[in-house]
Write a structure and sequence with these properties.
With 181 residues, this protein is mainly α. Helix content is 82%, strand content 0%.
Length: 181
């Protein structure tokens, strides 16, 4: 754990580690200071990484006319808007009624606010990191098609997580409003 405490002293990296810990622990506030078990990281990150890698490999394998620069261009041109959308949703979630947070408590989420913070911040962090990596790839002029495709698709998994949170929040609000009628 000594390495973690050293890494937490590095600006920007400390923010990434805190968000990653909160995401991997499914919103357990104590994970911010103590970290979380590697199994938690594995169970939360591995499925989306495997999905993005598999689809990337298939895409690259059977694609004949796409270039890495094109894929990086999709990330560079589209992800800034998606980041703005995600930040707006993040703010909106906390402006909603308590129904969503009560629902999260009812399904066993001990700290709904920390859970939402971890999930929303992680998705936004992934989009930002994908944008940064695509930008650096463009600057260096040496992108790999497989890597660029993976970065693009991994960012898409983050967007799917954002949509899921919006969907659940809206669904719970709709259910509450129906029960008032």
């Amino acid at each position: 754990m000594k390495i973690r405490s050293l890494l937490l002293k590095i600006p920007i990296l400390n923010t990434i580690l805190i968000i990653l810990s909160l995401y991997a622990s499914e919103g357990t506030p104590s994970s911010i200071a103590a970290g979380t078990k590697w199994q938690n990281y594995l169970s939360r990150l591995a499925p989306r990484i495997l999905i993005a890698l598999t689809i990337s490999w298939i895409s690259v394998r059977y694609s004949h006319n796409i270039k890495a620069e094109d894929v990086d261009g999709y990330v560079i041109s589209g992800y800034p808007s998606l980041i703005g959308f995600g930040i707006g949703v993040y703010a909106l979630i906390f402006g909603m009624s308590r129904v969503f947070f009560t629902y999260l408590e009812s399904i066993g989420i001990a700290s709904p606010v920390a859970y939402i913070n971890g999930n929303m911040a992680f998705s936004l962090l992934i989009l930002i990191l994908c944008l940064l990596i695509a930008f650096i790839s463009r600057l260096t002029g040496s992108p790999s098609l497989l890597f660029s495709t993976f970065i693009f698709l991994y960012g898409i998994t983050a967007i799917i997580d954002l949509v899921l949170i919006i969907f659940i929040a809206a669904l719970q609000d709709t259910i509450k409003n129906k029960s008032k009628e």
